[in-house]
What we know:
By secondary structure, this protein is of the alpha/beta class. Helices cover 16% and strands 37% of the residues. The chain folds into 2 domains: 59 residues, 2,3-Dihydroxybiphenyl 1,2-Dioxygenase, domain 1 (Roll); 54 residues, Roll (2,3-Dihydroxybiphenyl 1,2-Dioxygenase, domain 1). The strands form 2 sheets. The protein has a 4-stranded mixed β-sheet with strand order 1-4-3-2, with helices on one face. A hairpin with a 4-residue loop joins strand 6 and strand 7. The protein is elongated and about 55 Å long. The termini are far apart.
Amino acid sequence: MNMINKTTANPYLIFYGNCEEAMGFYKNALKGDLELITYKNSPIDIPDEYNNKILHAILKFGDAVIMATDSMMGPKVFNYNNVHIYISSKDPKEAEQFFNELIIDGKITMPFKETFWNSKFGALTDKYGVNWMIRSEQENHNEN
């Protein structure tokens, strides 16, 4: 599957059993298209309890792509503190809608509002512990 014709960097989130739930939440919040591949549909030898877990998830919205998996390896690490997923939208209403959907059962780091750097901006940590930054141009900005 040739997703992109140029060099890109995409977030790849690691979950420990709730990847399908989390990516479904993001699909609804970001109004995207989600593709899920389970471990049972792969040639990997896995424990039975992983048959319905997610080997690979791809969420596409706008020009953005977020990928994820349910990990079977290593210790469970839930430290997304040093990484934020940054979404920029030209449509302030869309950006605010993304923020309002992602914050459900999460925590606001910075309310979504107009800023001194000529945009609307907000930051949050969602209910899965993932950090997000949402930005949009102000609706009535006049260039001088």
